[in-house]
């Protein structure tokens, strides 16, 4: 009996080698759920899948439902996002986005905003300078956390709900485990680190500003990296481990 097939538009998040010449693709489908499919022969140089199944490619795919893993039957390229593979800095800034999407998206759990925001940020990064690529990456990582129910509290104390003044030059206690900033009276309740108010202002700007505005707005590399460190602390506290590609970004010396 022929296997049932289905079609989907999806973003390639990750490729894992399988056997001699196959790949397992981790895909983020348009409804925000995660799919995994085998691209048979995709590692052979002449395979028509080879160039269409690179990370950050958006494809219209036809898959057959398999017993354990689905099988990719056809793939038509919708967007290649070439710059994100050819430019080292852009690639390093985009990698944590793909890694966090792979960690947060779930099989059979629709979350369309994950796909929509990924499309917008990858398009924006495609034409951005290195400085703005880092800012866009930080913004998307925060938005992915927010869409997954892990939006950090940046302007009100995460413990008691009192507004916290983000005064210029101030350093405020931030609890990654608690998921946000703490006021003076609550700072002892949770393990916290001191974070510059400016970093929290940038994080708030990233969470509340569309990507095209971020791409054209101001960008400060050290502020973006301070926010990326905040994201790493949140990832460690809430999804069990740090993001490897962020660790690479911090230590690679690319920026
Ligand atoms: Zn408080």
Automatic annotation (TrEMBL):
Superkingdom as given in the UniProt entry: Bacteria
UniProt keyword annotations, A-Z: DNA damage, DNA recombination, DNA repair
A GO BP annotation: double-strand break repair
InterPro entries, alphabetized: ARFGAP/RecO, DNA_rep/recomb_RecO_N, NA-bd_OB-fold, RecO, RecO_C
Domain DNA replication/recombination mediator RecO N-terminal: 5-79
One Gene Ontology CC term in the entry: bacterial nucleoid
Record-linked PANTHER family: DNA REPAIR PROTEIN RECO
Function description: Involved in DNA repair and RecF pathway recombination.
NCBIfam families documented for this protein: reco (TIGR00613)
Family the UniProt entry places it in: Belongs to the RecO family.
Protein name: DNA repair protein RecO
Organism: Adlercreutzia hattorii
